[in-house]
Amino acid sequence: MVIIRSKKEIEKMRIASVRAMEILLYLKSFVREGIKTIELEMLCEKKLKAMHNTEPAFKGYYGYPYCLCISINDEVVHGMPGERVIKESDIVSIDFGTLYDGYYGDTAVTYAVGTISKSVEKLLTVTESSLFQGIEEAKEGNRLHDISYAVQACVEEAGFSVVRDFVGHGIGRRLHEEPQLPNYGEKGTGIRLKPGMVFAIEPMVNMGGSEVFVRENGWTAATKDGSLSAHFEHTVAITENGPEILSKP
Ligand code: MF3
Ligand code: CO
Ligand code: CO
């Protein structure tokens, strides 16, 4: 069952989502050559403490031990903060969610460190554009996989591939709710979208093949072929006036 959220609930989700994105924007200037990923985690924790009533969404989720997921280069999602040092030309995906007054917000961005090649720049711009193409379809009367189709078309036109083993999702009083929202699919299929539905839309895009595997730590997913991967995510509500990005500061 897909839950319809009231205006009041959506306002709480907006607060959670905006705060999550504010932290990602705050971290941007620290994502530089020489910083350890655990230092980004510490900066996040400190900033979060200053935010009233706001808890990290991932820490403790199925035992995940950190606030942030930091996935570098060929890592797709669920990279863990640690002693790894960020280098010039890395691409760093940071995924962060918060819980505010019982409601979740979920966001992700991929930052480039220093200079990157034209093709890597294209990976980042296409992944972010595919997110916005998907968001445009998140409107009343459309079907769920219209979002999926739009993301996939944008990515594949550019010659990249969407990850299939991880998906977007409904979000609300839990971080992951029904329905699953794949980044591939057939137009005109899936549930009909109604005002009050809220989704985390999150294309994960590989430069090479779509296949991924999970590393020995049991969490971190990386591309099988070692190609680079990017990830952008917004929490989006369906409203009478079209899609509304709740994670827009
Ligand atoms: N933020 C991820 C998502 O976008 C989920 C992370 S769960 C964690 O759905 F436990 F790994 F943190
Ligand atoms: Co996320
Ligand atoms: Co998510």
Strand and helix order: HHEEEEEHHEEEEEEEEEE
Write the CATH fold name.
Answer: Creatine Amidinohydrolase
Tell me what portion of residues adopts beta-strand conformation: 25-35%
Head-to-tail CA distance between termini = 30 Å
Query: How big is the Rg?
Result: 17 Å
Count of alpha/pi helices: 4
Regarding CATH, which class? Alpha Beta
Query: What is the annotated CATH architecture?
Result: Alpha-Beta Complex
Question: How is the largest sheet built, in terms of strand order?
Answer: 8-7-9-14-15
Please summarize the sheet with the most strands: 5 strands, antiparallel
Bound molecules: 2-amino-4-trifluoromethylsulfanyl-butyric acid, cobalt (II) ion
Write the topology of this structure:
Layout: H1 7-28, H2 37-49, E1 54-56, E2 69-72, E3 75-77, E4 91-100, E5 103-112, H3 118-136, H4 144-157, E6 161-162, E7 168-170, E8 177-181, E9 198-201, E10 204-206, E11 212-214, E12 221-223, E13 229-231, E14 234-239, E15 242-245
Antiparallel strand pairs: 1-4, 2-4, 3-12, 4-5, 6-10, 7-8, 7-9, 9-14, 10-13, 11-12, 14-15
The chain binds 2-amino-4-trifluoromethylsulfanyl-butyric acid and cobalt (II) ion (2 copies).
2-amino-4-trifluoromethylsulfanyl-butyric acid is lined by residues 58, 61-62, 64, 69, 78, 95, 97, 106, 200, 202, 233.
